[in-house]
Amino acid sequence: MGVADWFQTFCNEIKLSNEKVEIIRRRYRAITEELNRTYWNSTSNVLNSIYVGSYGRRTDTRTSDVDIIVSLPFEMLERFDGHLQNGQSALLQAVKNTMLNVHSTTRMKGDGQVVVVEYSDGISFDVVPAFLRDDGGYYHVDTHNGGRWKVTYPKHEIDAINEMNNLNNGNLKRLCRMARMWKDNWNIDMGGLLIDTFAYRFIRDRGDRYTSYASYDLMSRDFFKYLSKLPNTQYALAPGSRSRVYIRDDFKESAHECYELADEAISVGENAPSAAKLKWREIYGSKFPR
């Protein structure tokens, strides 16, 4: 096995299995149908909901939660906005109670902006009640500090990621997944959209250098160097939506260490493949092949 085989095996290993994708699809449709039945007088299991977050952008790994937005009738926003105290919290509780009709044996909680549905097999859904805007964005709840409505544009972000990924042979989404494994392995507090934003910029500016799995060692090394050289800032602008994505943790020192590890792995790779793979495992964790 060579570099191409190592990285192809790694990328396949960190993706969700087809079996789990099917389980997620069934649960997504059950949630959608129940909320449509209650709020839209419809039995559709696909209308008024979309996958968002890492799963919606298809940059998720086996450990990612599944985020979905469920669009509710706009008059509900006006009704809950009229509550004297935190109508956003009341809306979240109402949606949670509705979902208990089909998930009575599942652990469920309201958590600031989402209803979290946790299944016994480890799959977790974050369900976001929201209201579709004319510009394609959504109003969604934020129950903190007395409650407010926030605006998000997940469709714009999904479209931007898809377009850049298609222009670059699927490399963007694979890099996003690999970067998630790196941040988990190095205990970096870095959200999925921030990872995808940096990976998007990196691929946009130099993605034509990496044509196949055989160049993923170079892509990894160059991405870590790119991260380590980023200017100090409080936030980045997400692709498509240009929403602010805040930086919670200093990742540049870890990125520089991994740049050096990757450079060493590349240097020894041809003559000492076992040593090279150990260095890649130090970067990406135990899912990288031995």
List keywords for this structure.
alpha+beta, 16% strand, 2 domains, two-stranded antiparallel sheet, elongated, 290 residues, Beta Polymerase, domain 2, 9 strands, 7-stranded mixed β-sheet
How would you describe this protein?
It is an enzyme of class 2 (transferase). This protein folds into two domains: 18-152, Beta Polymerase, domain 2 (2-Layer Sandwich); 156-284. It is 50% helix and 16% strand. The protein has eleven helices and nine strands. α4 packs across α5 (87-99) and α9 (216-228) packs antiparallel against α10. β4 and β5 (124-132) form a beta hairpin. With 290 residues, the protein is of the alpha+beta class. The mean pLDDT is 93.
Brief account:
By secondary structure, this protein is an alpha+beta fold. It has helices at 3-14, 18-39, 53-57, 74-81, 87-99, 154-167, 171-185, 192-206, 216-228, 252-268, 273-284; strands at 49-52, 66-71, 107-111, 114-118, 124-132, 138-142, 148-152, 235-237, 244-246.
Strand share of the residues?
Answer: 15-25%
Terminus-to-terminus distance: 11 Å
How many β strands by DSSP? 9
By DSSP (H or I, 4+ residues per run), the number of helices equals 11
Rounded mean pLDDT is 93
Form type? elongated
Radius of gyration: 21 Å
CATH secondary-structure class of the largest domain: Alpha Beta
CATH topology of the largest domain: Beta Polymerase, domain 2
Structural class: alpha+beta
The percent of residues in helical segments reads 40-55%
Q: CATH architecture of the largest domain, please?
A: 2-Layer Sandwich
Q: Would you identify the regions where 5 or more consecutive residues have pLDDT less than 50?
A: none
Number of domains: 2
Report the order of strands and helices.
HHEHEHHEEEEEHHHHEEHH
Q: Main β-sheet, in a few words?
A: 7 strands, mixed
Catalytic activity: O-(5'-adenylyl)-L-tyrosyl-[protein] + ATP = O-[5'-(adenylyl-(5'->3')-adenylyl)]-L-tyrosyl-[protein] + diphosphate; L-tyrosyl-[protein] + ATP = O-(5'-adenylyl)-L-tyrosyl-[protein] + diphosphate
GO molecular function: AMPylase activity
Organism: Methanococcus maripaludis (Methanococcus deltae)
Pfam family, one: SMODS
